[in-house]
Design a protein that fits this description.
By secondary structure, this protein is of the alpha+beta class. 37% of the residues lie in helices and 21% in strands. The protein has one domain: Ribosomal Protein S5, domain 2 (2-Layer Sandwich). Helix 2 crosses helix 3.
Length: 110
Amino acid sequence: MSVYNRDMRICISSDYNYILNNGVKYNSKSFILFCLKKKCGPTRLGIIASKKVGGAVLRNYLKKVFRDIYRNEYNNFRNSLDMVIILKKNAQNFSYSQLKSEFICISNRL
């Protein structure tokens, strides 16, 4: 899939809260992934980057990196999932390839 459209995003705060409260938590060095399986519908992604991660430019860059990784790996998800990524403070210290390999490693466990 080459486009990251609205159907692939989690947009409503109540959806974020539901996934964070009921989803399965996976830790990595640079982010925390909450994942919730659902019966039908597209796999969706939400990204949370607090001010602790860095300034606005850095937060937007890291969100853009994770959206790109998700967009490139979208077809590899077998199940219909809702995922929320919470970036950690040290996410800025990792390269694109390291972030991608962490995301793929965790997504293979889903």
